[in-house]
Amino acid sequence: MSIFNRKLKKKHLQQFERNIAELLATEMPQLKTVIDLSEIAGISFMYKPKGIYIQTKYNPEDYKIINRNHKTCFNLTGISVFHKKEQRYQPVKLYYQSDGLTKIEVENPEYFHKIYDLTQIRKGEIELEHLPMENPDQEIVERILKSLTQEQRNLLELEYSFEIELNDILFYTILDMEDGNYIAVDKKGNVYRLIHDHEEIVKLIARKPTDFFEMYNGQKSELDELLFE
Question: Which end of the chain, N or C, is less packed with Cβ atoms under 10 Å?
Answer without folding.
Answer: N
